[in-house]
Amino acid sequence: MPTPTLPAISPLTQPFWDAAAQGRLMLPRCNACGRHFFRPEVACTHCFATDWQWVQASGRGSLYSYSIVHKAPAPGFVVPLVLAVVELEEGPFMFSNVVGCAHAEVHIGMHLQVQFDEVAPGIHLPRFHPSKA
Ligand SMILES: [Zn+2]
Predict the structure, then answer these.
(1) pLDDT in tens, the chain (133 residues)
(2) Residue 15's closest CA among 54, 49, 63?
(3) Given Cys at both, which of 70, 88, 120, 124 links 20, Cβ 3.0 to 4.6 Å?
(4) For position 6, what pLDDT does the model report?
(5) 0.85 cut: is pTM over it?
(6) What pLDDT is attached to residue 65?
(7) Are 43 and 31 in contact (CB under 8 A)?
(8) Where would I find the beta strands (DSSP E) of the chain?
(9) Residue 16 is inside which H or E element, if any?
């Protein structure tokens, strides 16, 4: 199996990946307006304040949109896969995958729970599986 395309980890995103390796989903939350945002940016994407901190998210969300991908976009992807936009309980949207169910069962609005899959040494990707409400 070729090595999959791996995330580029920067000082800005390092805390996210460190927590992922421990099975925790972290989101930036603004100290000025109190809202969560994702991806991490230097400034809050809602009010542009630079005062924000990492907080642990619930890991729950719902499926906002998805596509079933049949042609691998790069070496290392196992197709078909479900490319998903997950609306997190805290508000932000996250690109990920839906796993753990038949593709025919995937539907908009389904309840999801995060899981972390180690795809390379030390790299744990957040993916989502179906959950009860
Ligand atoms: Zn803000």
Answers:
(1) 566 778 889 999 999 999 999 999 999 999 999 999 999 999 999 999 999 999 999 999 999 999 999 999 888 888 999 999 999 999 999 999 999 999 999 999 999 999 999 988 989 999 999 998 7
(2) 54
(3) 124
(4) 84
(5) yes
(6) 98
(7) no
(8) 26-30, 52-56, 60-69, 81-88, 93-97, 111-120, 123-130
(9) helix 14-20
Q: What does DSSP say about strands 111-120 and 93-97: parallel, antiparallel, or unpaired? A: unpaired
Taking the centre of ligand 1 as the mean of its atom positions, its distance from the CA of residue 28, in whole angstroms, is 10
- Reference 37, options 49, 46, 24; nearest CA is 46
87 alpha carbon to ligand 1 midpoint, in Å?
19
Distance 39 CA to ligand 1 centre (A): 13
Q: What is the spatial distance between Cα 28 and Cα 50, in angstroms, rounded to a whole number?
A: 11
Cα–Cα distance for residue pair 117/20, rounded to 1 Å:
9
Between the CA of 88 and the centroid of ligand 1 the distance, in Å, is: 17
Q: Where are the domains of the chain?
A: 14-130
